[in-house]
Design goal:
This protein is mostly helical. 82% of the residues lie in helices and 0% in strands. The chain is built from ten helices and no strands.
Length: 188
């Protein structure tokens, strides 16, 4: 009982230093302090229990595996940034990108000013990048992502083949991913 109280009273910095030395009790204390807070943070964005649990498992597993390599000055900030990064990583790999992007937009709207500014900066960057693609690609992308038309509906509307629509969307997404890669690195 005394050992638990002693660990509980240690600052995050002290816990992290103990963790770096391989102290499993320090790891457990960090887990106990932050798991539910981080889970709520992720769940407010994703609204999916299993995915949130997987994200936290990944974060805490990485924290333990890389404990000797990490240089963390603010444990709380590091953990929240890790959750944010994992959420974005999930969005990039999700088959429901549009739905998740809508949730992300809502999350950023409800977040603090700094996060709103980051979201607006991303939206502005996206508009700048879209202005660099051909008018045809921009129109196809707009119909697909903003008006949520299927490839077949777009093809019929623009009197082109569905394969052309698919190719143009794929090229636009590839261009955006490539162009935004450095932006994401700077943002996080």
């Amino acid at each position: 009982m005394i050992a638990k109280k002693f660990i509980f009273d240690i600052s995050d910095t002290g816990l992290f230093h103990a963790l770096q030395m391989g102290d499993e009790k320090a790891f457990r204390e960090i887990y106990d302090r932050y798991w539910s807070k981080l889970y709520r943070y992720a769940f407010n964005v994703l609204h999916e229990q299993e995915i949130c649990e997987d994200i936290l498992q990944e974060i805490f597993s990485t924290l333990w595996r890389k404990r000797r390599e990490l240089e963390i000055s603010n444990l709380s900030s590091y953990l929240y940034q890790a959750v944010k990064f994992q959420i974005f990583k999930h969005f990039r790999h999700s088959t429901y990108k549009q739905q998740l992007m809508d949730r992300l937009a809502l999350f950023h709207y409800e977040s603090g000013m700094e996060e709103k500014a980051e979201y607006q900066e991303l939206a502005d960057r996206l508009e700048i990048l879209l202005s660099q693609v051909s008018e045809k690609r921009r129109e196809i992308f707009h119909l697909s992502r903003y008006e949520q038309l299927s490839n077949k509906e777009i093809a019929e509307k623009l009197q082109i083949s569905p394969q052309t629509v698919k190719n143009e969307i794929s090229r636009t997404l590839k261009f955006l991913r490539s162009s935004l890669k450095n932006f994401y690195t700077l943002l996080f």
